[in-house]
């Protein structure tokens, strides 16, 4: 390797180490607020001063809209790469995943905007989400169309006045939907996948209705039901309207999900690791079979972490393997659930009553199965990758004894 390449690797490694150290420290402050949020999801307003709550907005905002103040150190990047964001997501979730999802910022919509929007549209959207505190939503799921998202039915009809569009329909389970100022809504202008459009809405406009839904885990996500009742959409709010039909609406949704699936895996990984550490804190003398089970779980989580970093690096390099992303997301949701089940078993029959944090983690992790696609859908993705012989990397194909191909169920 040339010397310059080694140097570049070292400095990048050092920067990631500094970031990780910072995220770890910042996330420590989230445990207590997380429990408060579980009791009252709107309690996030009491914690807006915490640096950890500022991270989502800063890291997911394009650099030219990011506002630098002294809440975060200057080495925390705006417009973070996928690798940088999953590092933050893992540690933030180790602190509390609900607090991260409740934090203001552009959230998933940032990827749709970056993929599809022209400059004026980015100004419109990020100009608003850069105001602190502002929440944004990403509305794809509908009451009867979750996994089958391409069959969505929300309609975008030509405005009878002759200019612009009219949005009608419902969306379901939308994070921060009832608290957001702006959002991106996927809707149908014509039949078929290329008839899907993505439009930006201002929730202050007439025709927008929202209610927060009750949920037993990950309550900070404040999932909502939204209704668009003949909401007027000016032509300039249709994202990617300068692009061909095959490269807008649905394309934006797919890119956002691809980019954020590793984040959900990172959330799951963070909570899974926290559950293992919690057992060891509570039972420092744990030995024998129980200790071996915790060690085994930590091993599996560490292997997942490596895979997660690989898929994030592939996304950043512009050569994502969607099948492996599916494998990692599916595996992470499963492991997080297993880690909380293991913790509950090892801490005794009344553990969920005696340990409020564990009770919350045990409920929270169930949401990861549903976010960014369920296990069944990802299992199908992995299977398709295997059929096409496009799942394993050359490193996985190393068949020397002792090499185990990871990442498949
Ligand atoms: C905390 C949280 C936050 C969320 N935030 C957002 C958000 O911000 N924006 C948004 O748009 N959505 C959001 N969602 C919704 C999420 O994306 C959906 O829950 C998910 O897509 C699954 O859809 P569904 O719940 O309708 O389940 P369904 O699609 O009805 O699936 C129900 C069950 O059937 C199985 N199933 C479905 N289809 C198939 C198939 N073809 N083959 C085999 N099995 C199948 C599934 O695996 C699942 O077990 C959020 C969900 C949660 C839990």
Automatic annotation (TrEMBL):
Cofactor dependence: FAD
Keyword Nucleotide-binding: no
SUPFAM superfamilies: Acyl-CoA dehydrogenase C-terminal domain-like (SSF47203), Acyl-CoA dehydrogenase NM domain-like (SSF56645)
Cross-referenced InterPro entries: Acyl-CoA_Oxase/DH_mid-dom, Acyl-CoA_Oxase/DH_mid-dom_sf, AcylCo_DH-like_C, AcylCo_DH/oxidase_C, AcylCoA_DH/oxidase_NM_dom_sf
Domain Acyl-CoA oxidase/dehydrogenase middle, residue spans: 138-230
Acyl-CoA dehydrogenase/oxidase C-terminal domain sequence ranges: 248-385
Entry keywords, A to Z: FAD, Flavoprotein, Oxidoreductase
Coiled coil regions in record: none
UniProt xrefs under Pfam families: Acyl-CoA_dh_1, Acyl-CoA_dh_M
Family, similarity comment: Belongs to the acyl-CoA dehydrogenase family.
Protein name: Acyl-CoA dehydrogenase
Gene name of the record: acd_2
């Amino acid at each position: 390797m040339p010397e310059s390449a080694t140097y570049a690797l070292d400095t990048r490694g050092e920067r990631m180490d500094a970031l990780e150290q910072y995220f770890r420290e910042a996330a420590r402050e989230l445990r207590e607020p997380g429990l408060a949020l579980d009791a009252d999801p709107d309690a996030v307003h009491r914690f807006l001063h915490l640096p950890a709550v500022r991270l989502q907005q800063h890291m997911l905002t394009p650099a030219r809209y990011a506002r630098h103040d002294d809440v975060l150190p200057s080495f925390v990047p705006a417009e973070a790469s996928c690798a940088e964001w999953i590092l933050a997501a893992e540690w933030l979730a180790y602190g509390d995943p609900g607090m991260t999802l409740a934090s203001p910022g552009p959230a998933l919509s940032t990827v749709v905007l970056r993929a599809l929007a022209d400059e004026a549209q980015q100004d419109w959207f990020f100009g608003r989400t850069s105001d602190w505190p502002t929440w944004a939503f990403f509305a794809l799921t509908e009451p009867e169309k979750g996994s089958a998202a391409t069959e969505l039915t929300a309609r975008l009809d030509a405005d009878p006045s002759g200019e612009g569009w009219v949005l009608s329909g419902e969306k379901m389970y939308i994070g921060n939907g009832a608290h957001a100022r702006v959002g991106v809504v996927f809707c149908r202008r014509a039949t078929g996948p290329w008839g899907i459009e993505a439009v930006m809405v201002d929730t202050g406009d007439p025709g927008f209705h929202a209610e927060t839904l009750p949920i037993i885990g990950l309550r900070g996500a404040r999932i909502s039901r939204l209704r668009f009742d003949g909401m007027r959409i000016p032509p300039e709010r249709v994202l990617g309207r300068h692009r061909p039909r095959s490269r807008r609406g649905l394309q934006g949704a797919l890119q956002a999900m691809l980019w954020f699936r590793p984040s959900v895996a990172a959330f799951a990984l963070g909570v899974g690791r926290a559950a293992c550490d919690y057992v060891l804190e509570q039972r420092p003398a744990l030995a024998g079979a129980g200790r071996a089970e915790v060690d085994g779980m930590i091993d599996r989580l560490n292997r997942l972490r490596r895979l997660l970093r690989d898929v994030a690096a592939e996304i950043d390099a512009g050569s994502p393997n969607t099948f492996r992303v599916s494998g990692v997301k599916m595996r992470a949701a499963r492991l997080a659930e297993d880690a909380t089940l293991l913790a509950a078993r090892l801490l005794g029959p009344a553990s969920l009553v005696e340990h409020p944090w564990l009770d919350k983690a045990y409920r929270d992790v169930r949401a990861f199965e549903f976010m960014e696609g369920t296990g069944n859908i990802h299992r199908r993705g992995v299977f398709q990758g295997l059929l096409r012989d496009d799942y394993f990397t050359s490193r996985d194909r190393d068949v020397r004894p002792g090499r185990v191909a990871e990442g498949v169920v």
